[in-house]
Write a structure and sequence with these properties.
The chain has 461 residues and is an alpha/beta fold. The chain has helices at residues 8-23, 43-51, 65-70, 87-92, 94-104, 129-148, 182-195, 205-211, 215-221, 241-255, 283-299, 350-353, 382-393, 414-429, and strands at residues 29-33, 57-60, 77-82, 114-121, 156-162, 166-168, 176-177, 199-202, 229-230, 237-238, 263-268, 302-303, 306-307, 313-315, 373-376, 442-445. A hairpin with a 2-residue loop joins strand 12 (302-303) and strand 13 (306-307).
């Protein structure tokens, strides 16, 4: 039989979890809303845009009152932040922390559902020892101010880290915090553990690819079919860089006794444009990364070390920020343009997921049939199809029909099993063209590949 590495009970459970994820709001999906720009739409327009998408959370880098107020009564969770320049004052003066809460939180809450305050950004990897030593005291003073305002537990306090806080991340099981940060990190983690606040991290497979620009690394970073990477520490096979980076953080937390601290991905994304000397930016790559990331989160499969739960993830970014310095890629992460149109489509709008229902009976106009099944191209080797099969079944879909006794087990060939799994992943992930790419080994067809009692999901629409 073709090699499958998860049992049928898991697949059934994963399928049920996936149905539940689609049936409810996507509470795990957020977006970053930066403002280093001079062409952004008004906050009210942005609030309306967010409500039309699958995003249930938005992260601000500051605490702009106009934006916070525009998000009131929208059902969107809000993360607000203090700047690195605020930390010293917040750490040294409890009254300053109380004033910050009184000015930036209390006037808006709970109509504007602020859920988290991030203190500074990537402070631990700033090499500023003085600032690092002030970070936890600043967080504690803000927490005390929240306690005084009787909103303790409802609004958490944390800080955002880059992957540079790790001295080791490959393989993921060896994840370890940089020894020079350990003392400060333990105090910070003690605060997070005591308050139930998350450890927030910025994993960027894009940067990992830039440092290792091989085709197999690109596929690994873009959630595309690849041979995978086996963690020598626990023999777990990873099929994407995002899971590997997040699990490296999980391992680092566990290694110093903070197994109970939750992880939140504060930023991740891929630029759609860059300078001629930049490796990786393109519309196709950005669409593949963000589209496949969203499909991965929606599957509910989780990561190998944190299975069956999607980590809360904020995609960078809602809009381009045209005033940012640096290479062109820094100004090219936006999912939407200032005129509120999509830069590229990754299936985020609610209308693209749930068709509108007419309020009065109408006779629909005839629709052209569109192709409905994803199948392997002819001439693809069994080795590549095995990779495609392992990848598809590793994303949490129900592959039990191609296990012994299943309706699609016969014929017991890699090609037959791969075809079923690839199509099921395509149907489950949103039926977008990039969901049937498989490193250019598959195509969408209008010919139903079902046979006997083996029914392939999908069809013409």
């Amino acid at each position: 039989m073709a090699m499958l590495y998860r049992n049928s009970t898991f697949f059934v459970l994963a399928a049920l979890l996936q149905i539940l994820h689609f049936a409810t709001s996507q509470s795990f999906l957020g977006v970053n809303y930066g403002q280093v720009a001079d062409n952004l739409p008004p906050p009210s327009s942005t609030a309306n845009l967010l409500q039309s998408t699958s995003f249930s959370k938005v992260r601000l880098y500051g605490a702009d009152p106009a934006i916070i107020k525009a998000l009131a009564n929208t059902g969107i969770d809000i993360v607000v932040g203090t700047s690195n320049g605020d930390i010293a004052n917040l750490a040294s003066d409890p009254n300053a922390a109380q004033q910050w809460i009184n000015s930036n939180v209390i006037p808006f809450y709970p109509a504007s559902n602020i859920i988290l305050i991030t203190v500074g950004n990537e402070v631990m990897s700033s090499s500023d020892n003085n600032l690092m030593s002030q970070l936890t005291p600043a967080m504690q003073n803000l927490q005390n101010a929240l306690n005084s305002a009787s909103v303790a537990g409802k609004i958490k306090v944390s800080t955002v880290h880059s992957m540079a806080v790790l001295s080791q991340s490959d393989p993921p099981s060896s994840g370890m915090f940089n020894p020079q940060y350990i003392s400060t990190m333990k105090g910070l983690l003690g605060f997070l553990n005591a308050t139930g606040s998350p450890f927030t991290i910025n994993p960027y497979p894009f940067f990992a690819y830039q440092s290792d620009p091989r085709p197999e690394t690109l596929a690994f970073c873009l959630f595309q079919p690849n041979s995978g990477r086996v963690d020598s520490g626990n023999n777990i096979k990873y099929t994407n860089m995002f899971d590997a980076q997040v699990d490296a953080i999980r391992s680092a937390l566990n290694s110093i006794g903070f197994n109970g601290v939750e992880i939140v991905v504060a930023e991740t994304g891929w630029p759609y444009n860059g300078d001629s000397n930049e490796v990786g930016p393109s519309v196709d790559n950005a669409k593949a990364y963000n589209g496949n990331l969203i499909a991965h989160l929606r599957s509910g499969v989780g990561t190998p070390l944190m299975p069956n739960k999607s980590v809360d993830t904020y995609i960078f970014a809602l809009y381009d920020e045209d005033l940012k310095p640096g290479p062109t890629s820094e100004r090219s992460f936006g999912l939407f343009k200032p005129d509120l149109t999509m830069t590229y489509d990754v299936g985020l709008t609610k209308s693209s997921q749930t068709p509108a229902t007419p309020t009065t009976p109408v006779t629909p106009a005839p629709k052209a049939k569109t192709a409905g099944w994803c199948v392997p191209n002819s001439g693809v080797s069994d080795a590549q199809l095995q990779t495609d099969l392992d990848y598809a079944c590793g994303q949490g879909i129900d592959c039990s029909p191609i296990q012994p006794g299943g309706a699609c087990y016969e014929p017991n060939t890699v090609a037959s099993h791969a075809a079923y799994a690839m199509n099921l992943l395509y149907q489950t992930a949103g039926r977008n063209p990039w969901n049937c790419d498989f490193s250019q080994t598959a195509t969408v067809t209008s010919t139903n590949p079902s046979y006997n009692t083996c029914i392939y999901p999908g069809g013409s629409t």
